[in-house]
Design goal:
Strand content: over 45%
Radius of gyration: 18 Å
CATH architecture: Sandwich
Distance between the termini: 12 Å
Number of strands: 16
Largest sheet: 9 strands, antiparallel
Number of domains: 1
Helix content: under 10%
Length: 219
């Protein structure tokens, strides 16, 4: 029995594709008010998000939405991005994966206000600025301070999952006509005051391997 358990532990440590992803970039936006900086690229046909009081809100203009990609690194195709919900009383915020700024193409997980028990979650595939909802909108409880993570992996098909504070909210979402590559980033929009939708703490990670393996212990 001891050998079996030791073998399982070795598999968990050494098997490619298991374990947490490697951190690629993090940004807490703790700097002067204004633009996000040179490592960030505004998505074409969208507006540039703004840093205000060490967090991110929409552009001073309400529409279209404010979206940007972190283009200061080369992203692997299997990637995950997360943001922290600071305030969400109007509008939507969320992480982006596999985005291409020049073509307005990406996957986006939208947490829709209000951030309480009636909040909804949806995931969209956006290609050439045309959005197709591939999950939701479905009611999901939102709390201020929660971390929202969007994960994508695989080729054709690709699989996406959204997590709130590490808890799976969607199960695997299969996309048979996927976006295959790109950069991760952030999304924020609101028709109300800019301060009604605020996010913070962007984190981008790689995913070790192209899939996931579930190891059931003791069976």
């Amino acid at each position: 029995m001891r050998r079996t358990l030791l073998g399982c532990l070795l598999v968990l440590l050494l098997w490619p594709g298991l374990g947490r992803g490697a951190e690629l970039v993090s940004d807490n936006f703790n700097r002067a008010d204004g633009g996000l900086g040179t490592n960030w690229t505004t998505i074409t046909a969208k507006l540039a998000p703004a840093i205000v009081a060490n967090a991110v809100q929409r552009n001073t203009t309400a529409t279209p939405s404010s979206q940007a990609l972190y283009t200061g690194i080369a992203w692997p195709n299997n990637q995950q991005a997360s943001i922290t919900v600071t305030t969400l009383t109007s509008g939507s915020i969320g992480p982006i994966v596999r985005g291409t700024a020049a073509t307005t193409t990406d996957y986006v997980a939208q947490v829709n206000a209000p951030c309480d028990g009636t909040s909804t979650l949806q995931v969209s595939r956006v290609v050439n600025n045309t959005a197709t909802v591939i999950y939701g909108p479905t009611t999901k409880t939102c709390t201020a301070g929660q971390v929202v993570k969007l994960v994508v992996s695989g080729g054709t098909p690709s699989t996406l999952t959204v997590y709130y504070n590490g808890v799976d909210q969607t199960g695997p979402i299969t996309d048979n006509t996927p976006i295959l590559s790109g950069s991760a980033g952030i999304f924020v929009t609101t028709a109300g005051a800019a301060t009604t939708a605020v996010l913070d703490n962007f984190l981008g990670e790689s995913i070790a391997g192209s899939g996931h393996m579930l190891l059931r212990m003791g069976q």
